[in-house]
Each structure stands twice: as structure tokens, then as C-alpha cells.
Here is the input.
Amino acid sequence: MSTQLNILVLDDEPRVLDEIEEFLVGKNYRVFTAGLPSVAFGILSAEEVNIMILDVKLPEMGGLEVLKKVKLSYPEIEVIMISGHGDMDTVIQAMRHGATDYFPKPFRLFEINNAITRTRRYIEVSSQLKSATASLEVLSRKLIESIGTQLIGESQAMKHVLHLMAKVSQADNTSVLILGESGTGKELVAHGIHYLSQRIRQPFYSVNCSAIPETLFESEFFGHKKGAFTGALEEKPGWFEIADKGTLFLDEISDMPLNQQAKLLRVLEERKVSKLGSKQSRSVDVRVIAASNQNLEDMAEKGTFRNDLFHRLSIFVIEIPPLRNRTDDIPLIARHFVEHYAKIMNKPALSIHPDAMNLLQQHHYPGNIRELRNIIERAVIMCEGYVIMPEHVTFKGKENIKTADHPSENEGVAMNHPDMDLPILTSHNFDLEDNTRAIIIAALEASGNSKRKACELLNITWQALNRRMTKYGM
Here is the structure.
């Protein structure tokens, strides 16, 4: 969007038009004026307008009708309403049909300018969000084409991650450090940076640093000549050589032994590698992206990770938020995995019951996206109909409804919930319906017939409790 806003003022009072125009031109806005809706629509068809200041009472058609037509044909234009009749119903109707602000006459001109400033910020933020969403769609398509999966998320946190990925992907040689808990998708972000960059047609090579024996570090990273050591029966390229012109992703970099970190640092600074057993060195053009679920800065301060290597790797840092900090993304991700696993298992299209979705959004997810994926895979396996229900949603393999897990060898042992005075008695009656009904009764009695407290004891939602009570005629 250009720095100069284009503003159209539609009002049938010439004096009001002149005052607003003179004031806004003095504020460096480009201003168009119209006294009739037909004239205003002619301007809209010929000029790019960002904001419209619109009177409610007009000839030809009412201001609310003009507002509806403008938002239908030009949804990107933001509309500020003004009126000599500031009744609440008109205000509500204007806001309902898309107006961003409303002023009763007479108004002070600086108030209009403040409204324009607020609207301008809204336009800029909306433009940024649209750009981020479009970039996410492009990136998702590239990832699906290349590695069969994609980045999923519409939260502000994920759009910020995407924004950083897009920015750093254009800095072709800058090292990137991706931080985040296990299962948050660090490798996927690294893939995204690679596929947004100019290196897209070159190799992306992933290395798990925690899986490399210390004795093989130099051979794996830099390669070796034939006969360089016992067992070196042929010449072997190292990972830097394999990833030349492309991207080398070093996962779990915090697990790299200290004495090997200096060798990695030297390569990053010199951009040259020497194979074991060779006196020759060769230049490499490799973009290094490292990832860790540990706080490398803390490790560097404690001396468990080289401080100079940390600063070399962390020129540009991207932190991926844990899933529990972006619960708004859970429905989108869950539905993606449901569709994925239903297709793999040759099942019909499945939906997720609102109570099941509530359970998914309330979970803490220590395993992040990976854990959610596993939960959905189990749910799809368990679902025999067309809807994933709360009973299909299990965490760490356990039912989400708390029942007596395992009765002891002695019949009739009391199983007590820590917050319940009344014991839940179990026996060798393994009928799930009978036991579930008995547990609900016990929870209600223990909570003084408070459904809210009973839900907390049973670890289920109010809707789930109500559904079960109806099912059991309670």
C-alpha cells in the first residue's frame, strides 16, 4: 500500500464536503468528494480508494445501502460512517455491515483524522496478514510437492514464524538456528527455508547430531580418502560435500561433542573442508541450519557448548512455539491428520465431534505436533463410524474418561479419587456401561450434585457429562 491514502468523502452537504476536503488535503491525503451515491460509485470504478467517509442520510439511496454495495463490490475499502442522526440502531447496522467507525454530527475534524489513523493501521495489519497467508499457501504447496507434508497453522504465532522464514530464506548464506521443543516441527521449518530460497533445486541434507559416534564425526562431516584409517576401503564424501550448493540441516546440535564443535566452527568460517587422509582442501558453498530443543545460550554460558559456535550459528534465530501456546491451530491440524489417516486406512471421510475437539484443545501436549498426530492416528483406528467421539481420543494410550483402571485380585477393593470422599467400588463386573454409570453417580454425589465439579473429577467436558447422563437416563 502506498504511503499516501486515497480517501473518498460522500456527503450531500457542500459545506461539510468542503471542510473535510480542506482538512484532509492539509494532512497530505489524496481526497475525492461526491454529493451523490451515483457520483461516488463512478469515482470508485475509476480510482483506487482506501477509505470512504460516508454520510448516512443521502439522496438516491441511504448511506447504509451504499455501505452494503461498497463492501460487496470493494471489500478492501474501509468505511467510516457519519450521521446527523446518531441513534443506536443505525450505529449497530453500520458496524454489522462492515463500517470500521461511526461519528455523529457535529464532529470535530481531528476526531475524523484519528479515525483515519486507526483505520490506516488496520489496513496495514490486514495487508500483512493477507501476505503472510498467501506465502503460507505457496510454501505449503512447495513442501507437499517435495516432502509430502506441510506447515499447518493460522495463528499469529505461526504467521510470525512464516514471516521470519520468508525473510531469512533470501539471505542465502546466513546461518539459522531453530529452537523449539521436541515435536514442534523444526526440521519442517528448515525444509521451508530451503524451499523458499534460491537453493531450492540443490540438495537438502539432514543430519541428527545425537546419532553420530564421536569417532566417526570427522569422517561423516568431512569425508575420508581411501586408506585414511583401518576400514576405509574406498573414498567417501562427507556431508558438507554432499550438501554443496544446498542446505545442511544439523538437528540436535546441542548433542555434538565439545571437541568436535571447534572443527565445525572452522568449516563454517573458512567455507573449506579437508577429507581425512588428504592434505588438500576444497571450498564448499553450504547453507547451515541448526536446531535444538535445548537453550544453547544457557549451555554456552555454562561451558557445555562453545560460545563462539553458538554465536556463529545464531546469526538468525527462529523460535517455534509449543502447541499448547497456539491452541487455535489444534482444530486445523487435527482435521488435517484425520483426513490423512482416514485416506491411508481406506476409511470414509471423518469429522470430529465438538466434545472430542474440546478434549484435544484442553490437552497440554508435551510431545507437541508429533503427539497430536499419534492421538489422531489412534482415534481414526478406533472410530467405526463417521464421527470421532470423545471416547476415541486417548492420551498416552489411556482412556480420557477416568474409570477404575485395574481392580486388584481381591474383589470389591475401593478405588478412591484423591478429591472424592466417596469410594468407587469395583468388582469383577467388567460391563463398561454399568461401571461408567456408577462412576458418574459417585462423582455427582461427591461433588454435591454439581455438574461443574463432577466434570472436574471425571476430567470430561460439561457437554460430555450431559450426553452420558441423558444416555443412562439420569
User: Anything to note?
Assistant: The mean pLDDT is 81. The longest helix spans residues 109-147. The domain at 414-471 is CATH 1.10.10 (Arc Repressor Mutant, subunit A). The radius of gyration is 31 Å.
